[in-house]
Amino acid sequence: MKEPANGPLIRIDIPSRLELLGVVDKLADGITEFMGFEDLDRDAVAISVIEACTNAIQHGHHADSSRPVRLTFEVQPDTLVVVVADEGRGFDPALADQLPPPDLLATRGRGIYIMRTMMDEVSFDFTRGTIVRLVKHRSQPLEEEGQAG
User: φ and ψ at 12, to 5 degrees?
Assistant: First the structure.
């Protein structure tokens, strides 16, 4: 695999099974630790990636384990871009913008709200299945951290 100019691409396909979300959680946490993200940002990335994968498994693939959820982590100097892709038809994200903030104690219906709250950028593409693009910038660039000590 050719590494992009910015940094490595880490790709993984998982079967559409909710019990595999722990693997995704560990991967997201490990990548953000490697990149030097602060703990709150590490948690934000992991939670958002799990939300995107949960939506892909439940809504995009209806828990059909024969259909993979594809994840790509693009490691840039001070930014992590995560792409979660499934084969589902998608939805109208404008409808999500029109809804009031969800009941935060509800067991469903908070995923897009959580992702948008925790990430710096969230976008959707429905040209080939559903693609969710999550972007998180490191709160403090590495070169500033080195100067602070």
Answer: -150, 140
Tell me: the pLDDT tens digits for 43-66?
Answer: 999 999 999 999 999 999 999 999
The letter for the amino acid at 17 is R
CA dihedral 86, 132, 140, 39 (to 10 degrees): -50
Sign of CA dihedral 24, 30, 36, 41: positive
Whether 54 and 111 have beta carbons less than 8 Å apart is answered as yes
Q: Cα separations (Å) of 95 from 16, 18, 53, 100, 113?
A: 25, 26, 20, 10, 12
Give the Cα separation of 111 and 44 in Å (integer): 12
Residue 111: count other Cβ atoms within 10 Å of its Cβ: 21
The sign of the CA dihedral 116, 105, 20, 28 is positive
In contact, 81 and 123? CB cutoff 8 Å = no
Q: Which of 46, 67, 47 is nearest to 56 (CA)?
A: 67
- pTM, two decimals, is 0.83
